[in-house]
Amino acid sequence: MVGEEGAFVLGWDEVLTEEELSTTLKVLCMSEEEFKEYKEQDGWEDDSEDEESSVLSNEALSRLKAPCKKLLYDSVLLTLESYGSDLKAEQDLLNNKEAYEKLSRREQQALHVRYGQKRILHQLLELVH
To answer: 5: buried, middle or exposed (CB in 10 Å: 19+, 13-18, 0-12)?
Structure first.
């Protein structure tokens, strides 16, 4: 359900892999009875009633049901733990001109990427908390 890499793609304003995340959240937040029905029907053939909620903008994420919010929140925490440093450490390094300039160009680019990823993840934490 989550594609070849097993990851969801988040942007500043919305989830870019919204269909995958929406389906995954629906399945993982189902009761056992709902899941049995889902399997018997080979998934959802017509999801028109949930069409509006499938667009996972930041606003829509903040309105998810509590179990889905908790699942996302816990997943984001696990993802953040997989990094070697926290958001503050990245910000401190970006603000320390002397230390930043000692990094190679590649290390500087990686720092910017990590920092951006962590900011998006922290934003998601706030939306689903």
So the answer is: exposed
| 115 bridge partner residues | none
pTM of the shown model: 0.79
Report the pLDDT value the prediction gives residue 1, as an integer from 0 to 100: 43
CB neighbourhood size of 26 (10 A): 20
Which parts of the chain register pLDDT below 50? 1, 48-53
Is there a contact between 61 and 82 (Cβ–Cβ < 8 Å)? no
Domains of the chain: 18-128 (3.90.1420.10)
Nearest Cα to 80, choosing from 66, 95, 90?
Answer: 90
| Residue 118: predicted pLDDT | 96
Signed CA dihedral, 24, 115, 63, 69: sign only = positive
